[in-house]
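FAQ: What does a multi-protein file look like?

Like this. Sequence, then tokens, then the next protein.
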Amino acid sequence: MGDPKAFLTIHRKEAGYRALEDRIHDFSEVEQTLNSHDRKLQASRCMDCGVPFCHWACPLGNKAPEWNDALYKGDWKLAYQLLTSTNEFPEFTGRICPALCEKACVLNLTDHEPTTNRENECAIIEGAWREEYITPQQYKRNGKTVAVIGAGPAGLFAAVRLNKMGYDVTVIDKMEAAGGLLRFGIPNFKLNKKVIDRRIGLLEAEGIKFVYNTPVDLNKLAETGKLYTTDGNPISPLGESEGAFDAYVVSTGTPQARDLNIPGRDLKGVHLALELLTQQNQVLAGAEFSAEERVTAKGKDVLVIGGGDTGSDCIGTSHRQGCLSVTQIEIMPKPVEGPEDPQNPWPNWPRTLKTTSSHKEGCTRRWNINSLEFLGKDGKLTGVKVQPIDWEPNPNGGRPNMVVAGEPEVIKCEICFLAMGFLKPQQPEFPANVFVCGDAANGASLVVRAMASGRDAAVKLDKFLSK
């Protein structure tokens, strides 16, 4: 530990965001970076606790005290090596992870100024790319083949670990490029897609094969133990119709969004959140859509139903498309306005009110609001009838009972985005050589948890094929 008293004299300093009046006019990343001197000072605040709760809280088990110490001492290469010993993609988590480690930091308990682990890890990995510490590596092959179905964070993490173990890995995805939620769900203003392209280029140079625009029939895999596309074409390691991979990783995410089946759902202007987010990311990548296909908030009053991160992403995207106003409603009560959550005390994650950079760009937020009906004229959305509600304890236990708490009202809007989460997929019964991971196994969760699940799937697969 380089400076055991730094946390007493140096306060937490975040890089912050670009000026609001600038950032809402483009899709460039909103978060800024500190200079290397300030970043090293922030790393010095890590106390190297006897019991590192940051390590406990991180699904990947990141060794934050170790790489913070290396960063403080100016050994950026050692910091990179320590960081990537547990995390294959710090450039992703360093931008979009909610930083469970920071909420479990002892400094968060004592003065609510935890070490800036997330920003630190992003600085370390970007420094490694800049200094060319990262170069393609080649691994001795063991003669066995693995297909990874789904190129999201879980599948990519499994693919990297399996490639390092010597397997010939083929990653297959239904979309036109790799990344899954990272590419098609998270806006560019949070994660520039060039960051993903840079990493995929490295993985290809290390021998991982990528096959795109190829939806896989998972039921056929369950029945036959072989891969087929949804239109019946076989997929094999060598392109032969009878060939089969030695094992499979299913990491197809949670494709089914939770819908809101109330009257008026078929009105033009009501969309699932990913219809907006995916299309906008594709447009930024060069795709073209007709005026009829285009999902845009330009010149419209926007309503977002759902109070989570996906809803927040819809808010930021709507502003950049040129909306008139944004309202976000949530059926659940307003979270406690922290920083502490009595129901989830440290070192657990506090369920406190979260205000994102997108919220700060302009948004009316309301809680305990139930949606009753989509209203329209000539087939087009004009508003949503909603009603204030409250929640009462269920005398039988379980989910509280919803009760009316006010008169119905209408929220004017010409476009509405449903951001109410995703349904956990139901998987068929697969053969023993198929391993399901990430959201496909556990339902929608954090990117870092999906990565950890992909890591675990790789270990299980290796043990299975090594018997």
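And here is the next protein:
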Amino acid sequence: MVAALAAFSCSKKEAGYTIIVNTGNLQEIKSLILTNTRFNDPETPFSDTVAVVNNKAVFSGSIEDFEEFYLMGVIEGSVPKLITDIYLENANYTVNVKHNKDRYDADILSNGAVQTQIDSLKKLTKAVYANIDMDALMQEYSTADKAKQDSLGYILFQLSEKAEKIRDEFFENNPLSPVALIDAASDIRYMGLEPAREAVNKFAAVPEYASNKLLKKMQQELEKKEALAPGKQAPDFTLNNPEGNPVKFSDVYPKNKVTMIDFWASWCGPCRQFNPTLTKIYDKYKNKGFGIIGVSLDKDHDKWTKAIKADKLNWLHVSDLAYWDSQAGRLYNISSIPQSYFVDTEGNILLASPDEEQIESFLAEYLK
């Protein structure tokens, strides 16, 4: 087992946690909230509110395993503001709150193994940008001509590549660390089935993570992906076409040898960029039994229909105009677009979330 995980496992555990928050001269912060419910979806919601007295607030308690929490500031006359996230475990923390332009931030000192490792990685990646005034750079970019924008864009790309390389090296050297688990749990929705399965199996083999919430969420995400794997029955749905008439998916795929469900939206740049390619693919294979049902994650009917017309998408279109709450989007676990599924004449999934090259090669083989 890697050193980072061993250090985490063997480090001295506190009986509980204590978080001392110093608000300094920020008199507008009247109280503080420590919560794991920022996104309103945890299995076990928790929230603790403490008043700020003499520029200080103290949280204390205990926790079974490390988990991401959020420190929110209660400002008079405003909704609570996010100050910082904290990877909470049974350890001691000192949080020094600061205000930077239009947002709050904080410096965290802790003897917690997970927070220490998180902060170490952040420090390494932030060092890449240490001598760069990002605000000034972005301001220069916004007013520059195209040649200058290209030059500045290349500088930003190089910095990003350097920071990403540092992260890659860290995870290569610490593949089973708590930070690697946090990163994998964040990325698993965007992984293919096999990479997701490998990630879950890797962390599930570590006894220290047996009851960890992040691993459980990864396992749940894997179950969703496996339910949508090739060979599974495609979930059925009914959505309205642009004229307001309901269309049932299971009435569509029997009419084609292969049907593509194309998740897209008028506001999605990559979707619009891919549409010319998709129209060429459709024109090439439509007479061989290829059909498409476009499922839009739009909110605005006019923008949706204008995009269909502008991009010359001459196939079936449906939407409930519910944005990311799309009924079909939820059924197919859609977290990014464009994304697609291919089913046969009986609704069996043939291909899940392929890239552009896979689409062309799959159709060429399947419809030959």
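Q: Is there any per-entry metadata?
A: Some entries carry free-text notes. For the entry above: The first helix runs from residue 3 to 10.
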